[in-house]
Amino acid sequence: MRHLAAALVAVALGSPAASAGPRQASTDLIRLHVFAAEADRGRPVDREAQARADSAGDLREALADGTERRELMALVDDRGQADVVIEVLRREQQMTRRAGTPGNLGSRRMEPGGPTTRRVFVRVSVPAVDHEEEIEGVDASSWRGAADDAAATIEAWIRTNLDALRSTRR
Fold this sequence. Notes:
The protein has a single domain (25-95, 117-167), classed as Double Stranded RNA Binding Domain (2-Layer Sandwich), CATH 3.30.160. By secondary structure, it is an alpha/beta fold. It has helices at 2-13, 37-40, 47-64, 67-72, 143-160, 162-167; strands spanning 30-35, 73-75, 84-95, 98-102, 108-111, 116-126, 131-139.
């Protein structure tokens, strides 16, 4: 009974050893804000805007996944608090065509049926230094896979620019 009471007091006081909840964000973490413009502004959402919003959600999940990423970066809801702002610009799906049956004069018609490639394009910007660049995530099987690919590229970009990002903090 005494151990149960001690554990309850530790949880109430926020002891990290007793709590399995979210850890407190370190000030060393790079803060990221991910959004899709139309969906965040409350405008009527068409199919393309909804697709971008879906990819923004996939990208948030991918960026928050994994211990190494959680030790490097944290997602924030307030754009003003972010070191890096990530906007999902567009996404594209492309079906590769393969050579089919012979056509006129020995040419070959192209037929659908090859692999599909999904691409998610994001703009990564650092507001403090007015820098931005476009990153593409690609996957053959799913939009989530394309978001995972973009997240890996964003993570590598952050690791490469880590000292510069930390020095731009307000």
